[in-house]
Automatic annotation (TrEMBL):
It is a multi-pass membrane protein. It comes from Culex pipiens. One of its GO terms (molecular function) is transmembrane transporter activity. InterPro entries: MFS_dom, MFS_sugar_transport-like, MFS_trans_sf, MFS_Trehalose_Transporter, Sugar/inositol_transpt. Residues 1-259 form the Major facilitator superfamily (MFS) profile domain. Keywords: Glycoprotein, Membrane, Transmembrane, Transmembrane helix. It is found in: Membrane. The keyword Cell membrane does not apply. This is Facilitated trehalose transporter Tret1.
Amino acid sequence: LCPESPSWLLSKGKTGEADAAFRWLRGHDADALKEFQDMASSYSPAGESQEPKPTLLQNISKKEFVLPLLILLVFFFTMQFSGVNIVAFYSISLMQTTIGSNINEYLAMLIVDLVRVITSLVACMLLRVVGRRPLAMLSGCGTTISLAGLSIFLYFQTSIPVYQNLSWMSLIFLISYIIFVGIGLFPLPWCMSGEIFPVATRGIGSGLTSSFNFISFFVVIKTGPSLFAAFGTNGTFMIYGIISLLGTLVLYMILPETKNRTLQQIEEAFRSGWRTSESKTPVAGPTEQSKA
């Protein structure tokens, strides 16, 4: 059911097949036609270019590859080390620790899972209408506040008896955390990995960032129990909150806005040395409805 990528077909000089694949994916309206023409004009048919084809080493040394790679490494690091998978893998034990016996931990986990499913659906819609930068900043700030709030409340809960009867507050902070991390930090790096890498190096770029993500995933899951033992649940969540804050600050400085830009515009912008201050407002144009 899935055709070859039009960009890949154009890079191989298969213009006819690329046109058919693009029309199958985007339709036959004027905006789609204009976008395909812009895309096709950036490729030289196979065998016609007089310049030697760049080697893999040359391709991965270019700014349009290195800059997106660094951005996504920071994004995946922030996502994983904000504890997104800790809550999933150690959910029952975390529920027992954070909400105590006042609320059934299995019911609480069911609520959290339901919120996670709903948040995933909402995130799909938000990605269509909200820019990448504002969504990432909202998600990062909300995740940081939720983790810090949960950490502080758990500290008071173990120190001040009156807080022991407010277990529902822990559940609210956890739900808030799931919502905020689910609308941005979790889906955005995967979404942007298909947007910001050049066609020539998109495969290796996506492979490197995916590998880094799962290595980080492994490290977080394996170090989680040790952190809980050494710093307690409240201390561990505070550590994740600090990492989320630092990661969000770095992303604020380096994350470009890619919504409503074509893949060719994004690649050219990185080639020119994309300044984040110039990318906060998406570029509007005649093909706006058919852009990323």
